[in-house]
Amino acid sequence: MQRYFIDHPSATDRFSIVGEDAKHISKVMRMSVGDQIIVVNNGNAYRTEIDSLEDRVVHVKTIAAIPFSNELPVHVTIACGLPKGDKLELITQKATELGVSEIIPFQAERSIVKWEPSKSTKKLERLNRIAKEAAEQSHRTVIPTIQNVQSFGSLLNREGNDHHLFFAYEEQAKRTDRTSFSEHLRTIDFGQSIFIAFGPEGGFSPNEAQQFIAAGFKPIALGPRILRTETAPLYVLSAISYQFE
């Protein structure tokens, strides 16, 4: 059943779907009055039936609330050093499917690309659209938050209540006495939050690693192999899903 997110509150058992989603329902899916869809509003999912539809607005009425959630039982934020090409789009799509809560792109020492302020808004709009579509496809009730690109310093001084701070460091993978990521996961409880930083192509510099450690982050190895910058976040999210789901 098709799923659509709406971002406006409703005090009744009726919702209105507008804009591109309404057009998708009427023109692409060619739905009609009486067809059913799932509407997600403020983290809650509802099975609804179409009351009326036009090109730019579709009105639906609630049939029943959907009581269960498909969200990860832990809150996961990933911070990604700006990678080349469209890798951040791939990370956004797949990480959303795997249950990430927040994605923060940041400028690392070894990031080759830079986000020009004039293009930042369009890039964020595209990433948010990718996250929304992936959340609908994977039947989530929450669309991940995509932050604007941050500096490395702002990453270290992040405000919040993250319970566990990690950074993926390839030098850690070379150690024979390394602690496996699964061992770290066993120290985490349901409902807690996890913050994990990943470097761009080339990984983190020794200077960045030292600053992470000084700020309370733990270095983690993702197995004995060195993963690509777009693979590492997906490895981590898969491991978290296996541990907690």
Structure summary:
Residues 71-241 form the Ribosomal RNA small subunit methyltransferase E methyltransferase domain. With 245 residues, the chain is an alpha/beta fold. The chain is built from 8 helices and 12 strands.
Q: What's the tally of helices?
A: 8
Helix content: 25-40%
What does the radius of gyration come to? 20 Å
Roughly how many Å apart are the termini? 23 Å
Percent range for β-strand residues? 25-35%
The overall number of domains is 2
- Which structural class do you get from the secondary structure elements? alpha/beta
Tell the overall outline.
elongated
- Summarize the helix and strand pattern as letters: EEHEEEEHEHEEHEHHEHEH
Would you identify the regions where 5 or more consecutive residues have pLDDT less than 50? none
Could you report the average pLDDT, rounded to the nearest whole number?
A: 92
The CATH topology label of the largest domain is Alpha/beta knot
Q: How many strands, which pairing sense, and closed or not: the largest β-sheet?
A: 7 strands, parallel
CATH architecture of the largest domain: 3-Layer(aba) Sandwich
Task: Give the total of beta strands.
Answer: 12
CATH superfamily membership of the largest domain: SPOUT methyltransferase, trefoil knot domain
